[in-house]
Task: structure prediction
Amino acid sequence: MSQPTRRAVLTAAAVLAAPTIPRAQPASVKLGILQPVTGALAQDGDLGRLGAQLAIEEVNAGGGIPGLGGAKLEMVFGDARSTPDAGTQEVERMQSEGVCAIVGGFASPICLAASQAAARYGLPYVVDVGVSDSIVTRGLANTFRFAPGFGKVASVALDNLATLNDAAGKPAKTVVLVHEDGLFGSGLAKLMQAELPKRGFEILDTVAHPTPARDMGNIALRIRSLAPDLILPSDYYAEFVLLARTLQQQRIRPKGIYGVLNGAASNYRFVKEFPTLAEGLLDCNHWADPRNPKTQALRQAVEARGKSFAYNVMLNYSCVLLVADALSRAGSADRARLTEALAGSSFSGHIMPYGPTRFVGGQNEGASPVNTQVQGGDIKVIFPAAFADAKPVFPAA
Result:
């Protein structure tokens, strides 16, 4: 066998000594996150942004988007400033920056306007919270809502209220509805006005208030004069805190407070800062599956950053993972292909207590709310039984 020449040896050595050329990394995928982090809804927007950020970090730490060669997600954030007009302006900016989709909006008016603006560019829009059903009944192919709307929430809430009341011997017969006067609260109140009498409850009054609200004194006086068995509030966080504190100051004690999409009852900040007001509070709302280990891991991650665990975090976290799953299946960040992948989603890698993801007309038909109750300083799921980690206490007062 012939010996290698001196030139061949030197050539081989040079090849071995040469630095390895790294494989080119795929370009990051820009994802728009729209939240109101200034204005009246700033607390909710901040929590929504955090949920999205934690999901993006999880996707990137796990190797990126598999179907895109490991491409990382890059957040392009927009502050909706608690108004529809500002949300629309941010959609225009995100469009110019080349995002593949937008997640968020929080409030129904913001989601309604922002998704309409995104539709002009065929830009997929995933609603995180916005509960008004008009968001998904306009025939917009770009708009997807992962969580239930207020039609579904009202139906589940009132069915469960009737179940609670019947099991306790029907102690509650009269109710007063208190709601914010925007798209979310007014639409929900109209639904409950139609449905509560069918379930045996007499509505003594329906009281609306603005957001933000500065005083709840007159509302409390009205409630005192009517002396309802139950108060059913549908408010954002600050307004319910104000209402609850006013009721306490005036020593108004109904048999129960049963929130329907109550922004404070599903927020550990309220439980921590106002433990006496919170104890026993009932709510029907968005909430994660307490039996899912990922739920507890997410809560720990949120609290490690000095924030309160709330439904805004859970939904934005899940919505970003939904988009990541669709991107991988689409194998492309092309908006049309991503829209098609979202429409055909059967995503299950979330923490919500939902059935299989199935979008019909932009609404996830697998989504459903749960009932919670504050017990012993903790937020517990009491309905449905498949996800419950506590038994209800009713009447709570």
About this structure: The chain has two domains: 29-148+293-366, 151-285+371-383.
